[in-house]
Design goal:
alpha/beta, binds adenosine-5'-diphosphate, 2 domains, binds magnesium ion, Rossmann fold, Serine Threonine Protein Phosphatase 5, Tetratricopeptide repeat, globular, 47% helix, seven-stranded mixed sheet, single chain
Amino acid sequence: MTRLFDDPTQFADAAIDGLVAAHRRVLARVDGGVVRATEMSDDQVAVVIGGGSGHYPAFAGLVGPGGAAGSACGNLFASPSAGQVHRVATAAANGGGVLLSFGNYAGDVLHFGQAQERLNAEGIETRTVLVTDDIASAPAERIDERRGIAGGLVVYKVAGAASEEGADLDEVERLARRANARTRSLGAAFDGCTLPGADDALFHVPEGRMSLGLGIHGEPGISEHDLPTSSELADLLVGRLLGEIPEGAGARVVPILNGLGTVKYEELFVLFGHVDRLLADAGYEVVEPECGEFVTSLDMAGVSLTLFWVDDELERLWTAPAETPAFRRGFVAEGRRRAFETAAGDETAQEDPTAASAAAGEAAAELIEATRAVVEDHEDELGELDAIAGDGDHGIGMRRGAEAAAAAARAAAGVTVAEVFVAAGDAWSEKAGGTSGALWGSGLAAVGRALGNRDAYAADDAVVAAEAFRDAVVRLGGAELGDKTMVDALVPWAGAVAESVAAGGSVADALAAGADAAAAAAVETADLLPKKGRARPLAEKSRGHPDPGAHSFALIARGVAARFGELADRSNHEGEKP
Ligand code: ADP
Ligand code: MG
């Protein structure tokens, strides 16, 4: 339960503001997140981390000398947008390039990936190392698909220490990869967490039971057990982790016992005592361990255990000095405060629209508004569908995105079709977070670029727009037909739009035909197993249920077709074509 808050929608931002106020000696606030307040050495690599809020000390609490140079801070449990990552990285960069590091979640991968492309294009050399320590999230043969949880602390600390020592970008990247490869975690939860302002937890674990492998956003676990004693839980966690010893590991190991939000420190210490003994019994030398909170999940009742198998090089970096709000080691000399460069905004020249192109822009804004209305009507349903095998945020993420898009479209209405769609798309990906946010944002912006600024549009333009949306989503997300994503509804939709126009249909006819095709295809996704996105680790649970993103796409396709039909009727009566 979160009791103290003002406007729940502003909670994440307000928490970051307060964190910076409390740690002003180490942190500075920038648009999109935080950066370290003190100077870095010339050409020092900037390690930029980030993710959704609600996981403190991850991620902003791990920024400072010897730690990360900056953190992009998304909304609660939602990845930061590409724009946020780009702005934080630009502020943090100091001539030595940027290493982006974050947990392997589809939304983060998309947004950080877009930011990386942009930074590289602007001449700031940028690389990425994903954190993939959660052994519950995929089998060892598919280790690259695993999610990142508390092992992020290891990777960020090692990369931060390497950058502080003056290592170049190649070297910082190599060491971060090595740290990740030698880190394994497993978590267990006793009860769920509650978003600020929500009446109930996102999920519950039945009384007296424990869910093993439950994700930090409430992604369902791999097995349920009776609530164990502390020593039984230590046996289970240590046993499973020692079943996955990384290649080349020696006899020195760093255990990190992490509380997820509401497990008391004394409980953690009791558990840690058992973990320590078990590791000694297994012949390990325990090196510089940690026991406390490093990656939480709001007020989730749960713990995770991370093992990091060190060698000399990794041990030196792990034990090097650091001063961040939540993680300190050794002595760090007081640094001078730093001045920041911030990313320049996009200066898009506004053309003066003709009356006809402004009217078309108004119509475009109405379609975005119809999208928002559909999402609002179905928010709960979309969240519930996503909770079956995903993280339950599809409703709230789509609402944040669609509301921001509708507001931006309203503000831009009376301009051109291109500007309305581009503004809507940018606002959507900026505010929504999540995978779907990045995809919808880039899809809408692509529609805007494809339609451009004209006085009149013909039926063929509907095909151009539909294909631009489809291609942008496929290019960014990389999903194929049958992967159980929105692409499975999107491709048939664009196909039906094109077919209808080729057969002489109007735009209204084509959108209606597209909506039928999308609805049928979304229903059929129930038979598929997900291969992309957060639902993948729990693929089996999703069988029998449609994909959330395909379902929301079909609902929106229907709503937009209906709204376009009304607009067309209205303008036919007025004697003009929309
Ligand atoms: P997240 O997965 O980050 O929690 P959402 O819950 O908002 O984001 O969206 C989930 C939906 O995103 C999925 O149901 C799926 O349709 C879509 N999706 C996930 N990954 C991809 C991808 N790579 N390409 C296309 N669509 C995807
Ligand atoms: Mg989701």
